[in-house]
């Protein structure tokens, strides 16, 4: 007789029939009917209509019937809250039953009825049950607190159940302790309130450790997890915890083992680095981990993900156990794929075996697995230098198999090997080239193109090869296009004579026919580099690449340390901290930090949230850093003037460059031209003396539109003649083409000629220093003036000055040394990269907003500043931008325009600004926020100056 | 903790669900189905799946996916171990844990699940405690129940659950007191083409059947305990005594249980009891298959129940073979060759040879298939582990004692 009979239905209508049976007088019939109801419920049929009839069966002394009714209640109480109230009385009565089993059952079931109204009635019985004489009831009640907390957290806190739970931590019965721990950890996991947190002190830890040995396996998991959150107060305590947890490694439940491993991994951090204790402990960790790998595949999977973390942190643990990672052909694919990533990396001794094994895998059927194995061969080569040759020959063997995906993966890997060991294995290039045709994946194509470009000089038909790729340029993926562009430029630089046509073709394809901004930009950069200064281009494009390291697929140390704290949890399976995937819960930050001590071994291991970005030297990045120091637009023009006729359509290209740059270029060309005409700096009558303003003036005269230089304050007399034996020095500061200048006018008011000028700066707040020697036409005859520009660097010695912007200068000539001081206008120190991203594209974070919020409000300073010209927001932001104050966002609030701006000083200080502009008002409100409050008055001043001098 | 459990059969039907907290809609399983579609075979579904609001952790046993749904961060191994325990319990109760057995015993399954987990926390998972709470079904009892009107459910407090020895119930009585120990060792190995061992290790267990009255306290000692590399014990074993004296001292649970499982690591030399000489070659349109099996290091014991299976490449159409002993079958759908060899006679080595036919037009496979071997050797523990003696304290009677040894192949593969 089986339960299947409960599913046989009659035509009359099941519910109707059940109703009748439930109300029958015969106990047996009643029970059978409830069983039928439960059976329907388990398969998801809706039998909630029978609620009142089933509840009526509840008052019985038959335990089985009671249990069945309880089962039903738990399922449907939520949908019938009013009816559920009917059951309350029975529950309360059952909680006082003489049989502890019934008491426990009642309190357990009540907790499962997730109806708010019922919880009120639950409090009193629960309080009693938590103090019940029978441990079975107490342990059930402990869990019930967690249930109640899930339904109504506030109620639990108000009623003091949490304190009662904490008392249970020192209960005499280990099962009660374990359940109390489990309940408390669940509550503290889900509740943000500090009252819910589990405090741990030495006493509780001792209680837990004592209970650990005696409770069930599940209780052990809960206790171990709780233990792992405890921070021992010293080495000895950590050591004793470890000692008492170690026996858990021999438990047959994999969950207990892995949780124990977590406690021990954390414990080892607290014990200290290389003590003997740690070494023994590490030895003890290996066998249980190996054993996990021979359990069920699901357990293996979780174990492997964790072992991956463990061996990254402590590679010694599984050093000798490599073989257990060998893959069997009938392992599930998720286990196969995990195996080699967790593999504790090859060494010189075992490399032969490892390679043989990997080669074996490379002939498997699972494509993903094969790829991973081929990649692993590459990693071995990069990691163990002595083995590189064997790895390369293994890879060549694999390429000979001509299995398409193996070949492609091998080529990607070989590219990395070339990067690691330059000029060593190039003899195999010809073999690689044979497979050119078969490559159809972007990764492999890009790698092959890279190889051809990099070794163009050794491949006779490199140009043909690359040309063949060029035919379908627009059908390629961006990755391949970019690589092809770079490769052809490399080729051109290596064999300029034969490939001019090819390079022009690719440049025009990249710049004119492509919609991809990355590609276009890279195209332009190369174009300009090539046309301006082929030597520089060579330096940039053919620069020596930094060697790649073998640790590319490693986690960064901070993340690793965080994840070590989450061994055995879901985080360790995803390899992401819980904050990255646990959502909706106010996740309390805890157990996230390993002791700082571990940092001594690995720099930057803890604390910092930012980590060093792996130095993947991509040619692009190098080139990008080159752009700012070149005047690109000017380069174009000069390039054209010098008729290095690489540019078939200069006009079109010009129109693509942003307009202001073009203006600048024009202006500068004129400036440069005048310079050369006039033969060096000399005063021009009727013009302000400084070169910059001259340039600007000419720009204005020639109607080139808006003045494009940063605001330059008028010259002031810094050193009056009487003080300096007849030398009068006046000057100002300016920025032209991103170079900071000190513009000086020297006037000889003395009777004798002066010469041998030199200049020196004292240490100052921003490290300004002369970037070159002072060039004064010498001798300076009596009555003569000389305009001199002195380029400035910002890498000089730094010392905070008072006032902040003070700059002390010493000037020497053939007569004496003179000292004077001047104030640096702060906008001289604004940098051109001061535009904070509004939103970071990769992390989708509102960078500006976040930074603004990060800075404490106390660092915000407001000031009314004048807007004499009553400029509109657009005008203001344009004007400010020329002085490198960048508008990040603009909003209109209540008729007022808000500009959000950022600027950066040469020493890396960010200043954020909010500018409130009232239309047609002569003033506006400027709020500045920065971490370095000292600069605020200066920045305010700079704003006023720049805006007033429109 | 564990929020809900869904059982899904191979046809993709959710035939059973149980919620320990609030009800989670079945639609959460769609994420599982999505993942399942990506997998090539039923075993290949990734056991830990994350969805926007839930985590699905599942095991695949008896052709059923047992999918646990969790909402908070939870140790995945705890869930996996628990699920395995659930299936073990079903097998224990119903003889097998398959779909039919579960469907036939819906109410007991439901009661069991309710008893095993409370609000997601494990409650009673020891089989002897569960059996005290919920009597397993058997024909006799159902007959008795229907006659007397009593139920499967006992109304006594599960006493064992609270004692210091939760695994043993009090007041056990037998007329025949007996204790049997089976030392079972499985060899996991990978053997390469040339017949040399790539990797081998031994997984051993001692399964016990102890039917002793009262509260006996047993001590089991080995001749050579040092060869045990890594051990995991049943909770009843006193770890301290193992650490100090290398003896197993314990108060046994009542009935069948696994006392210890151990692992003899790859550092030790593992004796390989059989060898396989494969000779498989493919050419255009067909190939040759020739496999011989023979005994190697068997310490004079007979190798029995030898079964050779070989998953042939997909392009293999059929195989036409002749065995010198035993029978062979080739499943043309799954492409699996199974050769049931039986006993190996060292004088006349079993051999299977013949032709392979491939699908016309398709190229011969790149690589040869791996062969997996099953075998059994009675009265031998391949690691050399030997039980020295078993002593009983605390009770007066004299029990019957017995130790049996068995070696068999675990995951034993030969690459060809």
SSE diagram, text form:
The complex is a heterodimer of chains A (950) and B (416).
Chain A: H1 14-22, H2 27-42, H3 51-56, H4 63-76, H5 81-94, H6 100-112, H7 116-130, H8 135-151, H9 153-158, H10 161-168, H11 174-190, H12 202-212, H13 217-227, H14 235-245, H15 254-271, H16 276-292, H17 297-313, H18 333-339, H19 351-361, H20 367-383, H21 388-400, H22 404-420, H23 429-434, H24 442-454, H25 462-470, H26 478-494, H27 496-511, H28 517-532, H29 534-541, H30 557-564, H31 570-574, H32 598-601, H33 619-626, H34 632-641, H35 650-656, H36 659-678, H37 691-701, E1 716-719, E2 727-736, E3 739-748, E4 758-761, E5 769-770, E6 785-793, E7 806-812, E8 817-823, H38 847-854, E9 860-866, H39 873-882, E10 886-893, E11 896-904, E12 910-917, E13 923-930, H40 936-948
Helix pairs in contact in A: 1-2, 2-4, 4-6, 5-6, 5-7, 6-7, 6-8, 7-8, 8-11, 10-11, 11-12, 11-13, 12-13, 13-15, 14-15, 15-16, 17-18, 17-30, 19-20, 20-21, 20-22, 21-22, 22-24, 24-26, 25-26, 26-27, 26-28, 26-29, 27-28, 28-29, 28-34, 34-36, 36-37
Chain B: E1 2-9, E2 14-19, H1 29-38, E3 48-50, E4 55-61, E5 64-70, H2 76-94, H3 99-104, H4 106-116, E6 117-118, E7 121-122, H5 127-133, H6 139-148, E8 178-191, E9 197-211, E10 217-222, E11 230-233, H7 239-245, E12 247-250, E13 255-264, E14 274-283, E15 286-295, E16 303-311, E17 316-323, E18 327-331, E19 336-342, E20 351-358, E21 371-378, E22 387-393, E23 400-414
Parallel strand pairs in B: 8-23
Antiparallel strand pairs in B: 1-2, 1-5, 3-4, 4-5, 6-7, 8-9, 9-13, 10-12, 10-22, 11-13, 14-15, 15-20, 16-19, 16-21, 17-20, 18-19, 21-23
Largest beta sheet of chain B, briefly? 9 strands, mixed
With strands numbered from the N-terminus, the spatial order across the biggest sheet of chain A is: 1-2-3-6-5
Q: β content of chain B, as a range?
A: 35-45%
How many distinct beta strands of chain B? 23
- The total count of helices of chain A amounts to 40
Radius of gyration of chain A: 39 Å
CATH fold-level assignment of the largest domain in chain B: Beta-Lactamase
Q: Which structural category fits the helices and strands of chain A?
A: alpha+beta
Question: Mind summarizing the main beta sheet of chain A?
Answer: 5 strands, antiparallel
CATH C-level class of the largest domain in chain B = Alpha Beta
Largest interface: A-B, 104 and 105 residues
Structure classification of chain B: alpha+beta
Instruction: Give the overall pLDDT of chain B as a whole number.
Output: 85
Q: How much helix is in the residues of chain B?
A: 10-25%
Query: What are the low-pLDDT stretches of chain B, counting only 5+ consecutive residues below 50?
Result: none
Quick one: overall form of chain B? Answer: globular
Rough outline of chain A:
extended
Query: What is the second-level CATH architecture of the largest domain in chain B?
Result: 2-Layer Sandwich
Radius of gyration of chain B: 25 Å
Give the termini distance of chain A in whole angstroms.
97 Å
Domains counted in the coordinates of chain B: how many? 3
Subcellular location (chain B): Cytoplasmic vesicle membrane; Golgi apparatus
Main location (chain B): membrane
Pfam family, one (chain B): Clat_adaptor_s
Family (chain B): Belongs to the adaptor complexes medium subunit family.
